[in-house]
Amino acid sequence: PANSLYVPTSFRSVLLQYHFINENKSWDQARLYCKDNNHTDLATVSSMADMNRLRQHLGNRNTWIGLYREANGSRMWQWSQPDVKFNESQKDEWYTNEPNDVNTENCGTLWTDKKWADLSCDRKQPFICYDGENVQSLNWTDAQSFCRNRHTDLISGPQQIKKLDWGMMNALVHKSQGGFIFIGLFRDAWQWSDGSSFSFRFWNLQTWEEALYYCRHHHHDLVTITNPEDQIWVQEKTKNASSPFVWTGLRYTCSLGFWFWVSDEVVHYKNWASPGQVNECDMSGAMETGGEHKWFDSSHNEYICVNSK
């Protein structure tokens, strides 16, 4: 947000100290302020302990932290547990021709022959928590939240994976779609402004309604796609998206039984992956950021907002 608090950091011995500055600045201005006023940089959040400290002091206020993404930044593989680092030698753990990044696959799984494969984070698969088991299938983000709330985190790193009970693993494989089991491996293009390598992320995912409000408040509206030219424009805009789908301004009305654009445009042009398959009310339209960029109906909340032109 353009008007918000921001949090610089400084170090006292080995204890991370947060200092709250109640001034409205842009992200770049806030970072310069931190550096010019004897702080280290904008805040780095390295664990849930850091996150809980910030939430305790901030309440419902918005604040800048040091996490940013360059426009053409490359996605880097990381582990969900912030104290486990991904290094070059771990690339030997991938299955042949993996990762192949089909349809924007930013999450890691255990697959054939106990090797790794990338998969869409939106898929619902069994998963493995560190120091705990599970009996359900979730998308990767929900699986991470489940593990952090009930155990430690998603299992992370070759050393933890090699200690798995493979009898339990075989049972999970039989429950999974395609034999994929989520682990704590993910990739994104985000990095910390102070140069630290912490992989900790704690995203506040937007629902469709929140995305609509944000776009109308800060820009114009959620995107409307009325012709092939609009479709191509949106595809270009989503190249740097970190999620497999982006919200559009499509909404389904159960009372009238049809899809409509929130901009009041009629839905003439269509690019559905599976047209007409509406299974519940309050569905919204999302476009995949990879593959053929088809449209999907969804009520999930792991997508991001695309702004209009």
From TrEMBL:
Keyword Metal-binding appears in the UniProt entry: no
SMART domains noted in UniProt: CLECT
Entries under Pfam families matching the protein: Lectin_C
Family annotation (PROSITE patterns): C_TYPE_LECTIN_1, C_TYPE_LECTIN_2
InterPro entries: C-type_lectin-like, C-type_lectin-like/link_sf, C-type_lectin_CS, CTDL_fold
UniProt keyword list: Disulfide bond
Organism listed in the record: Oryzias latipes (Japanese rice fish)
Keyword Ribonucleoprotein in annotation: no
Domain C-type lectin residues, every copy: 18-130, 129-203, 206-297
Top-level taxon in the UniProt lineage: Eukaryota
Protein name, entry field: C-type lectin domain-containing protein
